[in-house]
Fold this sequence. Notes:
Blueprint: H1 4-7, H2 9-39, H3 41-44, H4 48-91, E1 98-99, E2 102-109, E3 120-127, E4 130-138, H5 146-162, H6 166-191, E5 206-213, E6 218-224, E7 230-233, E8 235-238, E9 260-264, E10 270-274, H7 276-279, H8 291-299, H9 306-321, E11 329-336
Antiparallel strand pairs: 1-2, 2-11, 3-4, 4-5, 5-6, 6-9, 7-8, 7-10, 10-11
Amino acid sequence: MLPRVLRGVRPVRCRRGRRAVSLGLPTLWGAVAVTYKLACPLAQQDGMEARIVSSAVFFAVGTGLVLHVRRALVRELRQAREVAGAAQNVLLRPLPPCVEGLALAAGRLSASRGASVGGDLYEVVATDHGVRIVMGDVRGHGLPAIGTVAALLGSFRDAAHDEPELPLVLRRLERALDRHLRERSRTEHLTGGGTAADAPPAEDFVTVLLLEISAEGEIAALNCGHPWPHLLSGHARPLTDADPLPPLGLFPLPAELPVLHCGMLLPGEALVLHTDGMEDERNAAGTFFPLQAALTEAAGGRPVSPQALVRAVYARLTRHAGRLPSDDAALLVVRNDRVRVPVRPAESGRHARTLS
């Protein structure tokens, strides 16, 4: 194995070689054209045959230059996409297929062409307190919202493990958003020639849904202005119709944050979390996308495959809109694949059903 100091020598030489070729080929094509014009006797003649040959030579030179430039641009674009894709996957990393007996699948569509990450965020983390899930939607969409997404996801990934209660996780997210907006405001103010002391906090807000699924399948939730998920159990229906809190950033969180207990996620059942870009998308006639009907149809009254459900819903959304979505649209499916959910003696109805 080469010493560490020498490991980067070959890549550097390769890059220099490619750069030399990139600069040398256009120079070579130009030298061919100049040499022909100055040294070839045919180029000095005014006859029709000489003009045809000269035109063919310069056409070949021009075509070669155009093709060379095109190849260079395509190569640079491919490299830029690879770097952007790697950065986006670090920010909104792909979910594992299963976490603590819960099958997962997620999808996202960005309203910014060429970007796979915008203003939507989601994450699923297995902790000592249960499986914790966040889904959020930053005001606006596309690349400008990525900084806020990064701040919130970084805070959630730490708080989900550190905090024993969901309200404490939500307060950590609120503080992270406040710090991010203040830092962004100071940066923008300094860029505009002002001072950091004069910078007012930037105004922005984020809808956030926090879920916690215990080992027994109990669902606990805190919702700040986000659409409620749908429960798939033969058909799709909203998990609850409770009023959410205001979005983060509009007002300070209240002193008391009561956690909403939403029943059980039984084996074979699934939760579908989404951002409002799914429901707010209109077609050419101005009709909103029927998300609940699309989920029921995709489920087909049978245990759903999370990956197949995501593909089917996005295919229908694309057909409905007929274009790039006007807002970022994210979808997250969580199916309970645990063999058995223990049931408390006092529970009855749908919560009393178990599968062996």
